[in-house]
Specification:
Structural class: alpha/beta
CATH class of the largest domain: Alpha Beta
Number of domains: 2
Helix content: 25-40%
Largest sheet: 7 strands, mixed
Strand order of the largest sheet: 4-1-5-6-7-8-9
Number of helices: 19
Strand content: 5-15%
Distance between the termini: 90 Å
Length: about 550
Amino acid sequence: MPEQMSTNLKENLGTRRIPKLRMANFPNADDIVRRGLLEKPRPPHAVDIMLVNPPTPDGGYWIRTQHRVGRRTRENMVWPQVSLAQMAALLHPTYKVKVVDANAERMSWPEFTQLLDKYQPLYYLTQVTAPTLENDMYGCFLAKARGAKTIAFGTHVTPIPRESLRPYPALDFVLVGEPDLTIRDLLDHLEGKIDQRPPEIVKLFEKHDPTYQPALDVEGNVDMYRIKGLAWRNGEEIVVNPPRPFIQDLDDLPMPMHELLPLETYRMPLIKGPFTFIVTSRGCPAGCTYCIKHVSYQYSTRLRSPELIMEELWYLKKLGIHNIHMYADLFTVNRDQVVELCKRMIAEKIDIKWTCNSRVDYVDEEMLQLMGQAGNWLISWGIESGNEQILKHARKGAYPDKAERALRWAKKAGIKNWGYFIIGLPGETEETIRQTIDFSKKLPLDIALFHVAAPYPGTPFFFEVVEKGWFRPGTQWEQVDMDKGTVLDYPGLPAERLLYWQKRAFREWAFRPGPIWTYLKMLVSDWSTIRSALSVGLQHLSWASTDTGSPVSPKAAH
């Protein structure tokens, strides 16, 4: 029977004309969907661009900033997204903008997806970090699926724009380096609004790039190859355009649109109520090999004037913010700026409490006294190691003797000291880790945190790790995180031992009368600091079940 059916079929095929099926006979579903998404009337609340700090991978608080790295914050510190507010100020009012800080608002992915559907952005801008790479790209995927052009910036995509675009087809553009003027230039070209630039924006381009010309050909079409600081796709090809010069005078930038941020959600240990950032400078002249700040800003330093910083302080105070972190790669990089700012704060009686960061070799006793009088109550110091050879190899340029002196000056000025240490820089051994722990106990620290070294792409440390073969086999970008794991495997000091010593270091430092008293004071201050204390304490005073390695010898545990 089957053979007869086959014969009949052949006969029918031989005598009947079968029409060829052509795709042109069917409507293009892809085009129909796209027209349905983009050509239907957009609601009044739809926006041109959504600037996004996306939901986090695990529900915790993550640090994503333009100048620094991505990591899960052990301190439950919620970092203000001032870089998004700054770019929003450069785009407004030509473009309708929406800033979404899903991290600060503890937003889930389904909730975030509803926002995308509600605001229907034409463009989606997000920061990308190594430990949250796949997670961040999921946000791009969701936006791209809804018809938006997707754009990424930050210290992960800047050094490796091709490797950021190639595996993620949902990502359309990368802003390489300083993103502020590049995002404005890109949107103006894509939207045909170059001739609608306000005078202050025109001045920005002309002043900070004397060779600037609109990226248009003789017929007025956009020439994507001429938009500086941009990486993009030309079909299958990934193109990285020439770099864009830095903004030399930060006073030319508009004040960030802080009012677009969820200011009430930002929290920092040891303070009551919300806080936010004021960017006082960009760049750092120090040469630390592990520091990712130089990836975006290299070694230049650009300052904002104390006058404009004061203007922003008063503006934030009117918004109800009384706690400020002076956000800079190195706050005390210019003594004259710091001294004048402090004198203005004292003279104008602004009564703001503020924190900052510093290096132990960029302060003096007189300046610290003035900072204390102006309302500075805490400084975070990058101390890193108690071993001078480790610091020399890392080109830190600041050694243990200077650290002890600077912290005692700060203590005398009534300023609390928050010390950061790094376990696992090149040359590290269990003996040098022991030196760092002992050194941390000698310092007048109110809080100390110990991180595992992270070789972020683009840093000299990263290239050294690649050259020496110190990456663990099967390394993924998400593992390049200073807290939840490590990608390092040194001969004689594997990843498991680095993590072991990280936890041990904090345990030894914290289980002493002074630090315990600090945490008790945190616990009685208010609920937000209770959570911060518990977050730090529970995560680092406990031995994780993943800790491995032989017990430390009695000699090493002195």
